[in-house]
Specification:
The chain has a single domain (8-67), classed as Orthogonal Bundle (Helix Hairpins), CATH 1.10.287. Helix content is 74%, strand content 0%. The chain contains three helices and no strands. Helix 2 packs antiparallel against helix 3.
Amino acid sequence: MAQKRPKARELRTISTEELRDQVQALRQELWETRLKARSGAATAPSHEIRQARRQLARVLTISRERTT
């Protein structure tokens, strides 16, 4: 999880299709992180789940701003 997470200002500059791709990728990442946490893997700290949830919320918010 060493990737840099873009801020809302940076997300507003990317295309709608890229936002959709990010939503799918973040949902997959969140699923995998939750799965690791449930299985007891030592490499799944709880802060990763929180970060993924918040980033997903940012991307969905920007996406919804564009539809209204």
